[in-house]
């Protein structure tokens, strides 16, 4: 039941204020500014012993893992990176005793991710699962983890599971950070930022008509570029992924810093760019990139925080500002709506895109 919405995808996008609140429920401790994550099965001693975090998942789960890796590095200062589970399992990975492995899966049944977890377990790796579906195969294989509590996700393109996974990583990074050197003041800043998310998501959803108009404006282009730097980069990747999945428009995501090392050759009137521009220490660098794109005749749709900079782009979606570490979660939401409305404008099968399955349980 789509609950009055035209598609499950739109329903699930609109559920995000509640689903993010459910991922957070009962997990924030305002006394010590820590996260309560009852299912990790890690002692403080074990938590301190990990020297590295390796995150694996497929598709959107992998991109949310990239946000997760950045959160863990920023808040806990533990080296962390994300890799597609499908690649990881085929490259005979070196499994280290002081690395914590984290597997992400909405369904908990993705075969590539499950096979990677089984390989890790066979080699003695310690694996946490960030999973939506309780009791699923991946959840059962892991040593512990975090359930998203986002409710069933029906549309093939992942939306609410993506944001809830990023929120779960913020909690995990807060937890690791406060076991290491994250100050109580910074812990409090993150706790308060997390609590603001549902209301801010609601605010973005309230701007659906404005975003839909932009989607209709750009939907007839054969191709779109998505760029972002550091915190904006996984957002750009997910934005491109959503657009190609549901609208079949070719979309490429690049780190904004890499544009001039190749893809700038593609920029021109036929290739508009969606630029993810958070108000962080890289703002000026990102604004320079916008100028470089426009100087080559490329149109820019900027998704960011500062209205004053809107004149540097052809179009602009301004989202509410949270803490810099949490901003990627909010910046993702308009790109979901953009992809949805592009797909509707093009008459696509929004909830069941051609050639895709919700959960790929085969090799
Ligand atoms: C893909 C789906 O095949 O699997 C994506 O089309 C999804 O939407 C990916 O992100 C991973 O799925 P899961 O269930 O492991 O998170």
Note down, in words, how this protein is organized:
This protein has 13 helices and 12 strands. It is α/β, with parallel strands linked by helices. Helix 4 runs parallel beside helix 8 (160-179). It is globular, with a radius of gyration of 20 Å. Residues 58-61, 105-107, 110, 113, 156-158, 356, 359-360 line the site of 6-O-phosphono-beta-D-glucopyranose (BG6). The active site is at residue 358. It is an enzyme of class 2 (transferase). It is found in: Cytoplasm.
Structural class: alpha/beta
The residue-averaged pLDDT reads: 96
- How many beta-strand segments? 12
Q: How big a fraction of the residues is strand?
A: 15-25%
* Poorly predicted runs: none
Biggest sheet, in brief? 5 strands, parallel
Shape: globular
Compute the separation of the termini in Å.
Answer: 31 Å
Are any ligands bound, and if so which? 6-O-phosphono-beta-D-glucopyranose
In DSSP terms (H or I, runs of 4 or more residues), the helix count works out at 13
DSSP helix fraction: 40-55%
- The string of secondary-structure elements, in order, is HHEEHEHEHEHEHEHHHEHEEHEEH
Name the strands of the widest sheet in spatial order.
Answer: 4-3-5-6-7
Q: Radius of gyration over alpha carbons?
A: 20 Å
Keywords summarizing the entry:
single chain, 363 residues, alpha/beta, five-stranded parallel sheet, 13 helices, 12 strands, binds 6-O-phosphono-beta-D-glucopyranose, transferase, glutamine amidotransferase, aminotransferase, cytoplasm, repeat
């Amino acid at each position: 039941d789509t609950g009055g919405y035209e598609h499950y995808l739109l329903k699930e996008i609109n559920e995000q204020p509640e689903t993010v609140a459910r991922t957070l429920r009962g997990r924030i401790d305002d006394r010590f500014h820590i996260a309560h994550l009852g299912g990790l099965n890690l002692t403080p001693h074990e938590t301190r012993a990990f020297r590295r975090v390796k995150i694996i998942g497929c598709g959107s789960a992998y991109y949310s893992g990239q946000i997760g890796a950045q959160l863990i590095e920023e808040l806990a200062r533990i080296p962390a990176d994300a890799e597609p589970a499908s690649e990881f399992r085929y490259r005979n990975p070196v499994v280290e005793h002081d690395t914590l492995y984290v597997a992400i899966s909405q369904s908990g049944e993705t075969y590539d991710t499950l096979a990677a977890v089984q390989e890790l377990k066979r080699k003695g790796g310690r694996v946490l699962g960030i999973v939506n579906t309780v009791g699923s195969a991946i959840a059962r294989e892991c040593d512990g983890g975090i359930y998203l509590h986002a409710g069933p996700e029906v549309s093939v393109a992942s939306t609410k599971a993506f944001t809830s996974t990023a929120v779960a990583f913020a909690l995990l990074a807060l937890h690791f950070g406060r076991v290491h050197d994250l100050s109580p003041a910074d812990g409090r800043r993150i706790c308060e930022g997390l609590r603001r998310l549902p209301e801010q998501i609601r605010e973005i959803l309230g701007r659906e008509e404005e975003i839909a108009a932009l989607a209709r404006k750009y939907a007839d282009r054969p191709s779109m570029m998505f760029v972002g730097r550091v915190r904006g980069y996984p957002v750009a990747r997910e934005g491109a992924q959503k657009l190609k999945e549901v609208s079949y428009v070719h979309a490429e995501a690049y780190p904004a810093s890499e544009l001039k090392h190749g893809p700038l050759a593609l920029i021109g009137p036929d290739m508009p760019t969606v630029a993810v521009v958070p108000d962080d220490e890289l703002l000026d660098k990102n604004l320079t990139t916008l100028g470089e794109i426009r100087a080559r005749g490329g149109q820019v749709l900027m998704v960011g925080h500062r209205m004053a900079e809107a004149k540097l782009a052809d179009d602009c979606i301004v989202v509410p500002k949270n803490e810099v570490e949490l901003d990627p979660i909010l910046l993702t939401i308009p790109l979901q709506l953009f992809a949805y409305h592009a797909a509707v404008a093009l008459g696509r099968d929004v909830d069941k895109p051609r050639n895709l399955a919700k959960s790929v349980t085969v090799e």
